[in-house]
Prior knowledge:
Blueprint: E1 4-16, E2 22-34, H1 49-56, E3 64-73, E4 76-77, H2 83-90, H3 112-123, H4 129-142, H5 159-170
Antiparallel strand pairs: 1-2, 1-3, 3-4
Helix pairs in contact: 3-4
The structure holds adenosine-5'-diphosphate (ADP) and magnesium ion.
Adenosine-5'-diphosphate (ADP) binds at residues 15, 17, 23, 25, 43, 45-51, 63.
Amino acid sequence: MGKVMLEVNNLKTKYVTRFHEDVYAVDGVSLKIEEGKSLGVAGESGCGKSTLALSLMGYYFAPLHYISGDIIVDGRKISGMKPDDVRKNILGNEIAYIPQAAMNALNPTQKIIRFVEDVIHAHDPKMPKKDIYDLAKERFQILGLPEEVLQKHAVELSGGMKQRTVIAISTILLRRY
Length: 177
Ligand SMILES: Nc1ncnc2c1ncn2[C@@H]1O[C@H](COP(=O)(O)OP(=O)(O)O)[C@@H](O)[C@H]1O
Ligand SMILES: [Mg+2]
């Protein structure tokens, strides 16, 4: 068995609705993902796939609440960490979430490179623009996006290119192996 990058043990989370009802959307989920492997989760609409993905990141905000269980990312237990520490040290660096239809969130008035700069500067305010450009160019190319995309606006890109653009941006801070 390869190195385990993500391990989840008996994770339980819930939504608390504004009518104070509890919705147990993730109720005792366990999984392991090895380095270089992927895991697909299939199920009917509303069965809890998105909630599981959100819950896995260990960063909870209302109406979603943590109940119990462990989340271990690359050997580090993140369940039980302070939300601020998770946000600063884990999200974007160790684990990233790409929401469905995220491409629709690209602001049409900005060039793609601006989104990359925004994301990186939120974590590393001192990174020079040249370094950001070089990193963006490398990561975009991995996803089949030419360097020119960085100077374009979202309306100039096809749906697939926009989708790959948000994937590249969402994962730009992740460590390279
Ligand atoms: N903000 C919320 N408040 C209360 N219940 C929610 C909320 N978001 C999702 N749910 C409920 O959690 C369940 C799982 O939803 P979701 O994770 O979005 O499913 P999937 O991604 O598999 O379609 C659904 O029954 C849904 O109604
Ligand atoms: Mg979903």
